[in-house]
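Can anyone check this?
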Amino acid sequence: MKIAFFDSGIGGLSVLHHAMGMLPREEFIFFADEENVPYGTKSREEILQFVDEAFKFLIGQKVSAIVVACNTATSVAVKKMREKYSLPIIGMEPALKVALDLYPERKVLVAATAITITGEKIFELIERLDAKNFVELKALPRLVEFAERQEFNSAEVENYLRGELADYDFEKFSSLVLGCTHFNYFKDTLRKILPSQVKILDGNAGTVNELIRRTKLKSARAKEFSSVKFFYSKKLVTDAAELARLEKYLKRLDDMEALT
């Protein structure tokens, strides 16, 4: 089956990376809208237009399902895309339920882009889980910029995160939920900053499990390797240096996946 993973940039590689481990026999397309990244600073109308244009292209590539591996695009556009297109469309959802189920008596901090933490979808999720008194929301927009230029654990990244998280009493928190796929590249720096009892959770496993459920695919841990084509805003990536850059992201995700 040919499955597309769509993101504004390279954050969605973290979801693709998880899927490659679970579904090694499938054919994947990864579409990064590099001409318009980041989405978190765009208007909702612009994001809807960008996502719709990407969907038209991906459907033209004969994909059987699309994973919107971007929390911002999920928040703004997934509902309308499902109304418009008939193929399975899987969006991202912060792993808030996982955090609350694991540690029901402690607070959870959800970090995402500004447009995600002010959108209806996150508040609907909090209300559905009856978690208003247990959830705080924090925008960390510069992490998207850092990730796009492969600046993962510099002093500037660490200082930024320490400054943004300084006001939280993490003794009251059980988890930091990563509500933006770009944030998965910074788990080692976050682990360095956060107290040991604060777990770092993301929605990748839940998203891939939902993909498997919706498409009725069978997960497998095989020696086979998934076939992947990369596109930057409709342009097939063939340049050796750029493919090496993408491989560097995937290698980083190998290192980050085990950190919690």
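Reply from J.R.: I decoded it. The two ends are 31 Å apart (CA to CA).
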